[in-house]
Amino acid sequence: MKQLIKLNLKFTMSIIDERLKKEIISEDALNAYKSNQKTIEKIKPTLSLIKAEHIKNMEVCLSYDKKLSEASNQLNFIEKRNKDLQNEITFLTKVFNALRKLTVNLEMQSEYFEVFHSENFSSLEIISKIESALSYLSEFNSVYNIRVIEERKEEISKTLKIFYKKFTTFFNEKLSKIESTSRGELKIHTFIYEEVKIYENIFQFASVNFTESFIQLISIYKDHNTKIYKKEFENHLKVIYKVFQEKKGQRVKEIFDIFYESFFLIIKAEVHFCKKHVLFSKVNLHEFVSDMFYDVIDYLIYSLNNLFEKLPVELIDSLEMNYSFDFVGEEREIWKSLVSRMEEQRKLYEKRFISEERDNFLSRSREKNLEFTLYNLTKRIKEPLRNELIEIEIDDILREDDDIEDKIKILRMLYLFSDKVKHNKIEFYINEKLKELEKEIIAYVFADEEKSKRRIERLFKQSANEKRVNEFIKFICEDNCDDEFKSVIDEIYEKFK
Asked: What residue numbers bound the domain in which 61 lies?
């Protein structure tokens, strides 16, 4: 309780001290004011003037700020307006220049427009004017939707369609009159190339602007070229046929190799010309040139049938094409297609030859068949055809094997065959027949002693003076008889020696 009373007393004393301090300060201030009152009264007017001047200056500053803000806004507006006007001037200048160019073009096109009504496409002067007109028209690609332009475009399109229709007719008639200067040789068509190059720009303009007319023009070029190639190939093949008919077999392969090389050079020239002067990358070059020669190759294959009837082996050998040419570009793919077709035809001829030979073997004697086979094998025949021909000849030799006389005949023919042709299968059957005949000769000759001499004579006769067969018969017989009969065998042997 005493503690609480002490605290309250302390707090009360603190409040009293604060009030006393404030009263002392207020009293000091009042005393100071009173002592300076006269001085304050003297400077009051000056302070009022200063205050008034300050207020006046503030009003002027605010007025200037407002005017500066308005001026800034006006400057921004003027700057934006100037920029808009500059853009408008630039745009109108471009429009003016475009319209001026368009007007000039319209005037120039009017100047050249009449040339499209010309009928004289053979005149180089007219063609030059047409090229100039097409050059100007190629720039007439305005995008402005202006009535005069649209009307002009429509007029130009209509006129050009009529022009290309007339030109297509003219071009067709012109190429129809061109004939090959070939007299049996294959030729690069420079005589056509020179004519077509005159109209190169007309082709190129059509390739961009008139697709239908462009397709018609290149089709005319292709069809007439194909027609001339077929005629040239026909004449050239007649020369080759003549060589075949004269049976100059040693030159057949050489002539065909020259023919293939000439054919390749023609394809190469056609590819390069069409790529640069005819198609302008608008049509597949490979397909276009391949199609041009497709009928030519068909005719070539068809015409080869006559050669096959006369000299099948020589033809089959000649159809093996030379792959050593310089293969580059599109001509490589076209040539590969040709090689593929000719290779297919060669294989067909091989099958046909073997099939016909099998049929012929049945209608001829074995001796005649062997003669024909040996003749064919002296020619250039490669595998597997050579092996197949040997196989059917062996089968033909072995086809009659009924008695010992047939077997003697077979052995004789096998020896003759092996003299000309070295083949393991021939040697195999010779050895087989020797084994078979060893027992059969003994059984046949010595089965009846009274007939032994006559039978030996028959065997020697069947060998047809084939020394190896006679010696074999003599050896087998003498090896299985007494000395007395050996002398008889020697006499018979000398008789047929």
From this structure: 20-107
Domain end position, chosen among 306, 330, 355: 355
Q: How far is residue 114 from each of residues 76, 119, 394, measured CA to CA in Å?
A: 57, 11, 83
User: CA torsion, points 359, 361, 364, 368, in degrees to nearest 10?
Assistant: 150
Residue 144 lies in a domain: yes
Looking at the 3D structure of the chain, how many domains does it have? 3
Question: Cα–Cα distances in Å, from 129 out to 90, 118, 193, 481?
Answer: 37, 10, 21, 111
Whether the ω angle into residue 384 lies within 30 degrees of 0, i.e. cis, is: yes
Q: In this predicted model, what pLDDT tens digit does every residue of 4-48 receive, in sequence order?
A: 555 555 555 566 556 555 655 566 666 666 677 677 677 767 767
Is 189 in a helix, a strand, or coil?
A: coil
**What distance in Å separates the CA atoms of residue 234 and residue 300, rounded to the nearest whole number?**
8
Q: What is the pLDDT of residues 111-149, one digit of tens each?
A: 667 788 888 888 888 888 888 888 877 766 555 555 666
The verdict on pTM exceeding 0.70 is no
Q: How far apart are CA 229 and CA 222, in angstroms?
A: 10
C-alpha dist (Å) from residue 197 to 276, 277, 332? 10, 7, 25
Which residues, including other chains, have CB under 8 Å from residue 35's CB and lie 6 or more apart?
none
Structure tokens at 196: 């077509």
